[in-house]
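How a chain folds remains the central question behind the approach discussed here. No coordinates are needed to read the tokens, only the vocabulary itself. For completeness, the protein is quoted in full, as a sequence line and a line of structure tokens:
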Amino acid sequence: MPVTYDNLFRLIEYQKITSTSLTRQANISDNIISRLRRNEYVSLETIENICRVSDCQVNDILEFRRYDQQKNESPLKNSSVRADIQNRRYLGNKFKLLEFIKSIVQENCSEIETMADIFSGTGAVSTAFDTAVVITNDLLYSNYLCNLAWFGSEPVRLNFLSNLIAEYNECKTFESNYMTENFADTYFSKIDCSKIGFIRDDIEQKYLERIISERERAVLIVSLIYAMDRIANTCGHYDAWRRGVIFERSLTLPVLNIPVKNNPRNRCFNEDANELVRHISADLIYIDPPYNSRQYSDTYHLLENVARWEKPPVYGVARKLDRKNLKSDYCTLKATSAFEDLIHHCKAKYILLSYNNMAHKGNDRSNARITDEDIFRILYSKGSVQVFSKAYRAFTTGKSIIRDNEERLFLCKVDYGK
């Protein structure tokens, strides 16, 4: 099985280590560097020395290929549809607040080499920390795939993916499949449902046959999710569809403007945040939990269904899958105790909490689950606390009335003596 050291050269470039410096510090010859560039085998002692110099693990610098990355790719086909990370409707998206968040961190925190975004959603906030090692996490698998697409450390073949997306957009299919049988003429037309089902099956088949890598699979699925979100017959949530509409727009997958190069130490997780903090650490942990009783698994159930592609039975007018294992305690009366447990187990120099001040401004479902008193009490148990706020118009379904809304950041400088 062929080996590749692409990650090594990405890592030393990121760390600004030259090949000359690497040969000297790792006590290896120029010939070894040449062998590495040709993806030839070298001794374990060489690998050990490189890991010592680069302060990394073996799997950070080499991998064994599961598919042919060297085959010639056809010329890039033109695609007029592109998408950036913020081009998806998502409840609680903080993209418009990035400058506010960045300024607070830059002015009040120092030496942020690792940042963990443990309720990352689609990952918008993590883009503000592209010079750090980024750890993302979300309970929804659809969001995990978004994070893997945008922040994953594995290299991808951009031309290959763009050409494949162009082929998907050109395909014509009217076959019956899981999507047509369960969602035809609801959120999408029957024709688009057929296309969604065909594309999603094809992505999975290519992954199982090792034609595409794990991150390339994520990029294609996320492109499909963005395309679905753009034409869905909803106001952005999948609690219901509008009846009697004419489906005027057809499914067109965008090419994602994913970074050509990410930090090779980036990590993406799909776990419960309270469990994750027990086995990670970071200089800065950013926490943006759900504020109220609205479960994200209810709001985005259809996209989660397509992401997982387990083809479960669906029920009800909204055609929802079973979501019991995707419910968040932060949307329930358990929110305060869950938050206290989370903060207790955070291992970081700084904890940055984003928590809206909805209080009792919205309807009952929109009211905040954790009081200010509890937030301060729990954060003060960890260190000193500062609060920063900015007026912000929240994204809602249109049913909640929220005036004088503010986005607030609680910055806790952790006192390791507590």
Observations:
- The radius of gyration is 23 Å.
- The first strand starts at residue 3 and ends at 4.
